[in-house]
Amino acid sequence: MPDLKEQIYKTRPLTSTFVVAHLWLSRGFKLLPCQPGTKRLVKSFGPVAGRVLLAEDVNYWFRDRGANLAVIAGPDSIILDFDQVEIYESWAAGWPDLAGSYCENTPRGGRHVFLSLIEPGGLVVPGLIRGVEVKRFCMVHPSKIGGGTYDILNPGPIFNVSVETVKKSLEPFFEPGQSNQPDTTGKPGGLPRASHGVNNGLRQNRGILARVKAAWPILEYLAYFEPRLRLEGKGEWLSCLCPWHDDHNPSMRINTVTNTWRCFACGSHGDVVNWHARKLATGDMVIAARDLEKYRVKP
Description:
The protein is of the alpha+beta class. It is built from 9 helices and 17 strands.
């Protein structure tokens, strides 16, 4: 008898959300319920805390309440989010073995490819990827958004591949900039590892980086440079829509203690200097720090 985990999407159509949710749960994915027809998470649920872990909760949210389904990949899995079908097809033509892994169409014409990594620790790539995001969570079939549906493109199993193979397949799409990677800390609750910027190895530049970071607490920086950004929550962790991608669900987390930020959708992360570098469209942290120093530096 075929392994259920290797046959979870062999039978079409699987339109019952709670059945599909049970199957994702059997593969080690965490589940998030979203409001029907939207990407808005049900209150008290999110990528940092609040996940559906038990079978009875799966039944309640996805059978009884008819919630949309989002999944969170474990530390040994990733999701490649292709913005456009042309980019996906270019990637798939060069790497048909990877493209044979389980894949879904998105309502906006993109592709989600699910991969399991042989090596623990997740995937780290050297820069931004043109038209591709490395995700740890996303909406999945049969969720509906704005009249569109997440549909199964390739119903095969999730392939087990090496980190180096995935990185090599994405090399043609690399662009210089911030690291685009999933959270792979494995900490209880999925809390992100604090990032304190880029160490460029030049001792003479460390002074200005430290000085500017100390001068600009993250909340003061956002209030000054991002006045339209709406922060929600209280205490150490705040959330907001990520300004670095088309975010319809608050994916950005701001840590007011470490003065760092991370988007759990597109993988971008850093501190105030990293943010300012992205705002200036430069990958040079020193240039960003010098520009930020013009505005104000506390004595």
